[in-house]
Write a structure and sequence with these properties.
Blueprint lengths: L5 H15 L7 H10 L5 E3 L4 E4 L10 E7 L9 E8 L6 E7 L8 E5 L5 E9 L4 E8 L13 H6 L4 E6 L8 E7 L22 E8 L2 E8 L8 E6 L4 E10 L4 E9 L1
Parallel strand pairs: 1-8
Antiparallel strand pairs: 2-3, 3-6, 4-5, 4-7, 5-12, 6-13, 7-8, 9-10, 10-13, 11-12, 11-14, 14-15
């Protein structure tokens, strides 16, 4: 998702200007992010559409858990079609945009993000009727975007693009089931120092993950480096008695991978 790269320099300019003038910290959300992504859009707060769960103080800023729970099931008549996830003060604030479908059954998501400094984390759910609903949590964590890469980076690169998929638990009453997709990828931020050369490795991260079931689109995640290394997504889908899950992945260096998984229910 190349459009979010420009936020790095813009965000740093705002923060530096504030510190240099010894003034109150600039509200990045109101000054930069909301005008860019939701101009002239009403954001309904605490409207009972989604719940956002994050730790108040993260144990590890590089792998901070985030879960989003929908307050109603997905149906053709009423469903959440997108969820935006922001880690507001990260160099790349837009962590991901998740395109969802009624076939998921529920619009719940769980993943891990990097948190670079004390910040608001915001989730905005866009309904198929055009409503935008926002929830916000404050998270205390620091250094997630500059945390060291895997000790054996060469080995991590050897396994890049490897995927795993599994279902968890039993079918729900609506015939949906929890699934987990896991990808081997270092998701390099460009802010991490190589411990041997003391040089900073160039940014290299997953940009898109598409999930299909029996060739029908289930969900798409458009992501940046605010997602933790080795991205993992939990979501719902309806397996309809079994079939094949296909995952298609692309990253910021133009690499592409695809793999299918047999689903037996």
């Amino acid at each position: 998702m190349r459009r979010i790269k420009s936020l790095l320099s813009a965000g740093l300019v705002f923060v530096a200007a504030s510190a240099g003038a010894n003034q109150s910290e600039i509200d990045i959300w109101e000054a930069l992010l909301k005008p860019k992504y939701f101009p002239a859009t009403e954001l309904i707060q605490n409207g009972g559409v989604i719940e956002l769960k994050t730790p108040y103080r993260a144990e590890d800023a590089a792998v901070t858990p985030v879960s989003i729970t929908a307050k109603f099931p997905q149906s053709p008549e009423r469903f959440i079609e997108k969820i935006y996830l922001f880690v507001e003060k990260n160099p790349q604030p837009l962590a991901g945009v998740f395109h969802l479908t009624p076939d998921m059954g529920r619009a719940d998501l769980a993943l891990r993000v990097r948190v670079d400094m004390y910040t608001n984390v915001r989730a905005i759910a866009v309904l198929n009727n055009g409503e935008h609903h926002m929830v916000t949590n404050f998270v205390k964590a620091q250094g997630g975007c500059s945390a060291p890469l895997a000790a054996d980076f060469a080995a991590a690169m050897d396994s890049i693009g490897n995927m795993k998929f599994r279902t968890l638990g039993e079918l729900n009453e609506d015939k949906s089931i929890v699934a987990q997709f896991m990808l081997s990828h270092p998701n390099v931020t460009g802010m991490q120092e190589d411990q041997k050369t003391h040089l900073f490795r160039p940014a290299h991260y997953v940009e898109k993950v598409k999930i299909y079931f029996n060739d029908k689109h289930v969900m798409t995640a458009e992501t940046g480096f605010s997602i933790s290394a080795d991205p993992s997504f939990r979501f719902f889908f309806r397996p309809h008695g079994g079939g094949e899950i296909r995952a298609e992945v692309s990253d910021s260096k133009g690499n592409e991978w695809s793999q299918t998984f047999l689903v037996e229910i």
